[in-house]
């Protein structure tokens, strides 16, 4: 009976596809109306939410703080010759008095040699060994720190009093043993259209984060030194995903990670699609690699679901030239992604106080497609062992 029903089922599917292809234009218009209505409603919700977004409070004098413990900034810098000088100078310019910078620097571009010129009481420089990787470099650097609090950041970041002190506050007040903030582009990048799109997407996603989160931004995070001891002081072998792995260790220890929305460190954004693709896919792949080890099933399913959605979207787009209904669906997917990105840009304009470049609006469809490629690439590199731990 089952075998006899198959031809009928196939005939019904062919008939349905034929009907859909004949009416693809009308289906597209109906779908487009639904997409526009949906995005318009979300836009109205975003506008109502703007009033709840408050500007970062002004800095108070350090004399009002209950205490000023020693803070050690820990940085692994590999081939960062173009950034390391500005990074060190931004650290030295911080008004916080009791601080130390431990740099594990190396590479073929003279990063170590540049960093050595700044070696002084507040800056300790070690040479990073070729092939050592971030995890082992941080492990060696941690041995040279003497701060009660460890501040994790990257060599392409510019620190500021606002960002630094804001992410310190939860630990100083005894509200948490770990805290993390967010990031923004370097001053010279803020008007670049592709960078603006990345920034506004990230800003929109982080606008709704709770007071405690499941992740750690490795370029802007503070941890109590005793908490790092509990997590093993970077002793685990982690070839990729150091920051995500550390965050899961913290959560597994029973501690939470405070999220500080007002702490925003300036950092270098990728302005070339291929570099953006590698970075974003690596971040997503790190979740797929490590989540199961820590029984973070929700995060694993979310990451895998994103990758599968990318496969679905790209499949529809690739089939578009061969079928009217697939062409209609592809158009609706791109329209939805484009309108969503326009919302993120609008939201960023008002919450980040930036002027949105017109080219950023025009880039919206292309960045939507690029993100779908990234999702598929993340899954491909996850399944491809030689590429799994590629930086």
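Sequence proposed for the structure above (391 residues):
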């Amino acid at each position: 009976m089952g075998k006899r029903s198959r031809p009928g089922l196939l005939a019904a599917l062919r008939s349905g596809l034929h009907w859909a292809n004949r009416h693809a234009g009308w289906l597209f218009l109906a779908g487009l109306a639904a997409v526009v209505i949906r995005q318009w409603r979300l836009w109205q919700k975003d506008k109502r939410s703007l009033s709840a977004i408050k500007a970062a409070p002004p800095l108070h004098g350090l004399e009002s703080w209950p205490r000023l413990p020693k803070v050690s900034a820990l940085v692994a810098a590999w081939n960062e010759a173009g950034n390391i000088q500005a990074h060190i100078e931004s650290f030295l310019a911080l008004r916080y008095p009791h601080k130390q910078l431990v740099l594990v620097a190396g590479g073929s571009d003279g990063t170590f040699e540049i960093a050595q010129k700044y070696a002084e009481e507040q800056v300790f420089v070690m040479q990073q060994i070729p092939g050592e990787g971030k995890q082992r470099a941080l492990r060696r650097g941690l041995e040279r720190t003497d701060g009660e609090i460890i501040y994790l950041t990257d060599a392409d970041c510019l620190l500021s009093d606002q960002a630094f002190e804001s992410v310190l506050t939860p630990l100083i007040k005894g509200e948490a043993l770990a805290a993390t903030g967010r990031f923004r582009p370097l001053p010279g990048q803020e008007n670049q259209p592709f960078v603006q799109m990345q920034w506004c997407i990230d800003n929109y996603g982080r606008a709704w984060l709770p007071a405690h989160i499941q992740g750690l931004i490795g370029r802007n995070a503070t941890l109590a030194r005793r908490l790092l001891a509990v997590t093993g002081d970077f002793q685990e072998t982690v070839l990729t995903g150091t920051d995500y792995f550390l965050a899961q260790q913290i959560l597994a220890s029973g501690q939470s990670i405070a999220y500080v929305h007002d702490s925003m460190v300036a950092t270098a954004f990728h302005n070339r699609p291929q570099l953006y693709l590698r970075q974003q896919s690596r971040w997503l792949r790190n979740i797929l690699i490590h989540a199961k080890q820590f029984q973070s099933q929700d995060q694993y399913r979310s990451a895998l679901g994103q990758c599968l959605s990318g496969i679905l979207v790209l499949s529809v787009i690739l089939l578009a030239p061969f079928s009217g209904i697939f062409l209609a669906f592809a158009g609706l997917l791109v329209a939805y992604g484009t309108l969503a990105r326009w919302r993120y840009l609008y939201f960023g304009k008002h919450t980040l106080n930036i002027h949105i470049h017109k080219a950023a609006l025009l880039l919206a469809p292309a960045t939507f497609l690029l993100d779908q490629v990234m999702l598929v690439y993340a899954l491909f590199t996850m399944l491809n062992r030689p590429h799994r731990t590629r930086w």
